[in-house]
């Protein structure tokens, strides 16, 4: 629960702070509303005058689109690629549209150098001329002679005389003026570009906007064509050079081949020696294969010859007879095995089969021996063939060794010739492609809508001008209001006094109406139920509640600077207290600029100075106000050293004596920030009432005077704001004392 309470308290404090800040802002606007109203009126009047004097302008717009779609008629790569679909590319195209070069082409194309709207060197009616013409129409009186006479005087004085110019400067000035009326914008979310132009005539605005679009599109196409033509020219020149290089490299190959005797042997481009060497290598491989095969047959034949039963003699020797004998051997061996199993080894049939098998195998060996002789002969023939081929290959290899070095150089020349030919053929193909592109060039942008003459002017919109002036005036007025309020270092209310200097403010003394010529000291008596009287009475009540009006009290009334209403507060407060039945003594301690005698009358033979120095007695200086019974002692400006008199022990004893005789003693002292007279009186006073003029005296001056009093040992016990405009306070202030002030006036008499 405590946590919730703490949070609620913090939120409430924050809300209260926001409410106070908002209220203060609103009160500043209320206090300075005259500044705001004056600023609004001035700016609105200037804007209205500007709208009436400014010539109307028409704005026409043409819309372009950077087309993201591309037309692919062929697969040929373009010399210059299409625009990328990026914001930077569109920004670049906008810069191209608004470039000086594009504006120069439009100026030359439309002859805008001769247009007075853009060429200031051409004579045209000025604003003064138009005003004179308007006056002529209204009054029916021709003011042209007067206008010419004034112009002549100004020209003779060197005012309004135009400097001579050149056609180049005129053209440059026209281009700059045209560019000022041009604008090109694009939305970052689309590919569209809006080209706008502002001119005095609607048809002219549309014509110039369309001219910029046409020049931009034409420049795109011309740029691509120029780049393509430059590429074709370069390709043609390069192809001519490469053609000569290809011919030279081919001739170098042929010359070297002829020089080295490297005659080609066939369609493959090889020499005869190379072909023979390759054929011998192939023949040697075949001979080596045949020799290996013959040796293998001889080895198998020897095995068969040693033991016909091992291996397959028929397959090894390849003889039909051996094959037939082998088949017979197989049959006899099978029958022999059967008979041995059935009859045993001693049976005559078994012995007969053994004899047949032995004879048959002897025949096979004899036949194999004959075949072996043939196979061995074949092996020797294969070996001899191999030796012959190896010898021929060795001889041919020796002959081709000299040709190898020449072939390396020939291969290098051939590679160079082939490389030149490939580059030549590639560039020749590219030249054909670029020539075909001449009629296929496309713009990267197209026109969505052409500019049309607008029906109504875009500027000046009179309502916009007036509204803008009103808004600007309001902003300037608010700025000036807050600036004035910030620079205002005075006091606005009693709460402000207490927060700034930390001294209680006990009342507001209103200012009296100037048209009534009322005197405050009489007004409190003549109008006891007036606002002024009640304010002075409230000060008295506050002093009484604080104990400042008890018997023996001495109230010192001072201010920071003259003109604060200090003496007026003394007089009105003293007369009101005296009228209420109290015995009050008013001592005028301002011996430099005394005023009480002029207000209440001065008929005494002596003054305060005479009393201090002993020239007069008490009964000679004390005077009585006939209307209230107030006792007062005036001061007269005949003393050269008033500070010494005011700081004397004599005056201190006089004040002490008076405090015993009267209910209250009021000291009217000089301002603290001007002279040091009031400082010496601080030791005799029991209370210090400080008078500050409302919204007039700077806070720093008041603070310095109060600090000075504090240094002298007397704290300021209370502050009174004088000459307060209560109507204005109630209207512009948000303090508690200002709340309901207008409604409270029904309790006061006028």
Automatic annotation (TrEMBL):
Membrane topology field: Multi-pass membrane protein
Major site of localization recorded for this protein: membrane
Matching CDD domains: BY-kinase
Domain (Polysaccharide chain length determinant N-terminal) ranges: 19-109
Pfam family, one: Wzz
Intracellular or extracellular location(s): Cell membrane
Keyword list, A-Z: ATP-binding, Cell membrane, Coiled coil, Membrane, Nucleotide-binding, Transmembrane, Transmembrane helix
Annotated CobQ/CobB/MinD/ParA nucleotide binding domain residues: 556-727
Record flagged with keyword Nucleotide-binding: yes
Tyrosine-protein kinase G-rich domain location: 410-485
Residue intervals passing through the bilayer: 35-54, 464-483
Protein name: Polysaccharide biosynthesis tyrosine autokinase
Organism of this sequence: Azospirillum isscasi
